[in-house]
Design goal:
globular; binds N-carbamoyl-L-aspartate; aspartate carbamoyltransferase activity; Aspartate carbamoyltransferase; alpha/beta; 11 helices; about 40% helix; five-stranded parallel β-sheet; Asp/Orn_carbamoylTrfase; Rossmann fold; 9 strands; 2 domains
Length: about 300
Amino acid sequence: MSELSVNHLLGIKYLNKDDIKLIFETADHFKEVINRPIKKVPSLRDITIANLFFENSTRTKLSFELAEKRLSADVINFSASQSSVKKGETLIDTVNNILSMKVDMVVMRHPNPGASVFLSQHVNARIINAGDGAHEHPTQALLDSYSIRERLGEVKGKKVVIVGDILHSRVALSNIFALQLQGAEVMVCGPKTLLPKYIDKLGVKVETNLLKALNWCDVANMLRVQNERMEVNYFPSTREYTQQYGVTMDVLNSLKKEITIMHPGPINRGVEITSEVADSNQAIILNQVENGVAVRMAIIYLLASKIKQ
Ligand code: NCD
């Protein structure tokens, strides 16, 4: 297969196994490119991409921008806090105004679940979802799986536990879909209050005891507690959360085997993982960041090649 089955990247749930394979093979090529002295290719010289961020972001925004520039695309950036959205403009009007400047692709982060699907139905551009509320964050899940494949050889058959705030996490949902599609076994672990009621329908194992979960897995993906999406208290205190669900070197050393630690960032050092764990050889957190650029280059390149046809 040489092209994606989709015209937009709205969520992992719209992809198939071959799409992921193609994205990873293309990312392998771009990973080699970004490690060369000249890190740029001319592939997207005639493409203009708008990065629309209606919600805060550091690494995802930088990673997309870098990926676009490494492909030689023209890039425009927009953040909601500095825009006319604050003056009451609708999402469609904002985006149509930007598109009338002849933009080919839109990378959007938005607080509302489904915002990028909505956009893809109303505007004429390729859309990449860079996170829609607590729903999906497909590029994060793809770079996470790519990093597992790099560290452990393959994703198929691996046991992956996602630890923490599953309820409010788009990273969790996209990872569950992506890992299952590739034949990994998935477990979620966290306090009951941070597990969604529909969790049984997702076909994952559920565990509330961190040590049991870590002893089961090959990889633990540690999530940040999404305080900004909580309108009530889901656990008594951060200290108690850390005591029950925080990973320390002592916890890692007490396990029967060496596991791989992942984190999508931003890390709350000392809450979900300690600094020693984050900076240890078992953690692949910075590899995830590096791979993020290559994987996003692959996605942008593959979607752009469909515009040119
Ligand atoms: C995540 C996000 O924004 O969904 N971060 C990221 O994209 N790197 C996770 C988080 O905010 O905890």
